[in-house]
Amino acid sequence: MGTLACKTPVPYTRVRNSITPRLDALALDLCIELERRGVTAVPIPTNESVWDEKTGRYRSIISQKHAAQAAGLGTIGRHSLLITPEFGSMVWLGCVLCDTLLDADPLRERICTDCNRCVEVCPIHALDNTDLNQGACWDYAFGDDESRKTWVISCHKCRDICPYNLGTENRKLTQ
């Protein structure tokens, strides 16, 4: 949570950039262990997407937040981020596909109440329509900071303003 409050985008960016390879390594380790047990498994890269001409969006092999929602981990909020009861939208996801049928957890009740705070705070109006304008959001929020000579995540206002950014179980920490 502290990185969200920083006046510079560097700590938030650094945390995200440190977590991503760890998630990929954990997914690979899980695949290795599953395959030792006779289960075919494939790690899905955390942050590798390709442009999809049909949808006009960047896509991964699968949508990890939709998979997480289907697995009962949380629900997707108005800001298009996964919200979990434990951690709110302060989650990063890793994913493994395997050829074994697993029991699903029950789906979660919707956490987001469509308060629209994220819509109102978005400086580029990427949430004005039902679907996130992914291209506009990415062009604004991610990129090179010429003054710092580094790549940064310069906007996360939708995450900051969300009343569930720490999750429903941790809301008392911010009140």
Task: Detail the topology: elements first, then pairings.
Elements: H1 2-5, H2 10-36, E1 41-44, E2 50-52, E3 57-59, H3 64-70, E4 75-76, E5 82-83, E6 95-98, H4 117-121, H5 134-141, E7 142-145, E8 150-153, H6 157-161
Antiparallel strand pairs: 1-6, 2-3, 4-5, 7-8
Can you give a write-up of this model?
This protein is α+β, with helices and mostly antiparallel strands and 175 residues long. It has helices at 2-5, 10-36, 64-70, 117-121, 134-141, 157-161; strands spanning 41-44, 50-52, 57-59, 75-76, 82-83, 95-98, 142-145, 150-153. It has a two-stranded antiparallel ribbon. It has a two-stranded antiparallel ribbon with strand order 2-3. The two termini are 14 Å apart.
Overall mean confidence score, pLDDT: 89
Helix content: 25-40%
| SS class | alpha+beta
User: N- to C-terminal separation?
Assistant: 14 Å
Spatial sequence of strands, sheet with the most strands = 1-6
- Biggest sheet architecture: 2 strands, antiparallel
Number of strands: 8
Task: Count helical runs.
Answer: 6
Return the string of H and E elements.
HHEEEHEEEHHEEH
How much β-strand is present in the residues? 5-15%
Taking Cα atoms only, what radius of gyration do you get, to the nearest Å?
17 Å
Q: Which stretches are poorly predicted, pLDDT < 50 over at least 5 residues?
A: none
